[in-house]
Amino acid sequence: MHVEWRRRDNRQIHLYSRYVMALATVTTVLLAAMALYNLLTPRVSSSHPAPSSSLHLSPAESCSDSCRIVLVESIPEGLEFNSSTTHPSIFQSWLSLMAEARSSLNIASFYWTLTNQDTGTHEPTAYQGETILTKLAELSGTLSVRIAVNTPQDSQPQRDLTLLNHSGADIRTVNMRQLTSGVLHTKFWVVDKKHVYIGSANMDWRSLTQVKELAAVVYNCSSLAADLGKIFEAYWFLGESQSIPSPWPASFSTFYNKDTPLQLLLNNTPSSVYLSSSPPSVCAAGRTPDLQSILSVIEDAQSFIYIAVMNYLPTMEFSHPKRYWADIDTQLRRAAYEKKVEVRLLISCWNSTPPVMFSFLKSLASVYDPKHNLDIQVRLFVVPASPKQKEIPFARVNHNKYMVTDKIAYIGTSNWSGDYFANTAGSALVVNQTASQSLEPTVQSQLKAVFERDWSSDYSTPLTQLTNLKDVC
């Protein structure tokens, strides 16, 4: 009997040992799998749930991208600077992007007026826009061209879109007025899922030769292009569904935002980069809303904040009844008062400027007292026009929409009033290269040079309490 118990015990011990060994093997495999998952999966902001990893960018791919960023400008005909600060033209950058295209071109746009016929003009300088339209039509017959555009009003010309559609482009109109009471104001391109353009210029011939614009082109950057592509796909989705999902499907989500930016090389310089979007209702999980991006950039500044936008209003500009909206204005005053940050605003002045804007700007400019280290200054930028140029509708204006600080370059597509962030679809590229040890000039330094060139130019006039706008504009 004792022998039988001993045999049974030995058999149980043997079975238990095999069980322990099997359990250890399974545990080892699970731990290895978890370690591999943590290695391959980037962290996301705790404020958003992590979407399925199969729907997102590969961290390994994003780290291996060696991207090239170029600031590009449109300088209106006749505008000359006494400065060595120059950049390639937006016209040339659009031609370059189309020449690079091999498989696809996606364009998000507000409206299309690329020809003289669209504007009822006979301007020789419309040639550049007409060239772009011709090239786009040619591309539409050879590769995938998709255009997401704000639903045109009855009075807006649609010849360009009709031509492109007949040439093979796929076009969807997005009725933002119905969806959010705003418009699709975004202006960007995504080419072959690896090149991007984003900035202030509309698909308008005047944006190439008669309006001052600034944008960025990023070449060979599949990680950034994939993320901007998600914003385009959101517009594309809205163009078909004509309704805003809540929540957005996980395929529109991003890992990259102000808290967890994309880490990559821009011009051989280590950079932290992300894309913001507005309004919040079209931001999928992980996407930083554009207003939060702007407020964050202002908050992070330690020494200076330079802003160049066409319109600046602490109001809901298009709402009825009228509403005061001071989110950005308050943040700028706080930065100047609490951290003694130097604040500069370069605002446009032209025939379509809302007169009330200058009252608010004068209030902001009054926060200037060197004795107490308060330094907010405002200047008005006027693009001069000959009698002939004055006949061109909605031209001769500084249409820039950017901000640069000692830490960050922000290049957007929106004017700065409340409606653009609450209701209107816009987007922005945010770049931080403060960790750079490279000999290459940073994006911040290049953008700062553009601002300083414009600020000190003959086209810039200080705004004071005594400024007579009729004399300036």
TrEMBL record:
Domain of life, source organism: Eukaryota
Instruction: Provide the GO MF annotations for this entry.
Output: exonuclease activity
Question: By its UniProt entry, which SMART domains does this protein fall under?
Answer: PLDc
Quote the EC number.
3.1.16.1
Q: How does it sit in the membrane?
A: Single-pass type II membrane protein
| Entry GO CC | early endosome membrane; late endosome membrane; lysosomal lumen
Primary location:
membrane
Question: Mind telling me which Gene3D superfamilies this protein's record contains?
Answer: Endonuclease Chain A
What InterPro entries does the entry give? Answer: Diverse_PLD-related, PLDc_3, PLipase_D/transphosphatidylase
Quote the catalytic activity from the record: Exonucleolytic cleavage in the 5'- to 3'-direction to yield nucleoside 3'-phosphates
Enzyme class, first EC level, given as a word? hydrolase
Q: What are the residue boundaries of the PLD phosphodiesterase domain, all occurrences included? A: 180-207, 394-420
Question: What are the TM regions of this chain, as residue ranges?
Answer: 20-40
State the compartments where it is located.
Early endosome membrane; Late endosome membrane; Lysosome lumen
Instruction: Enumerate the UniProt keywords alphabetically.
Output: Exonuclease, Hydrolase, Membrane, Nuclease, Repeat, Transmembrane, Transmembrane helix
Matching entries from PROSITE patterns are given as: PLD
The record's annotation in PANTHER family points to:
5'-3' EXONUCLEASE PLD3, PHOSPHOLIPASE D - RELATED
> Belongs to which family?
Belongs to the phospholipase D family.
Q: What is this protein called?
A: 5'-3' exonuclease PLD3
**Which organism encodes this protein?**
Monopterus albus
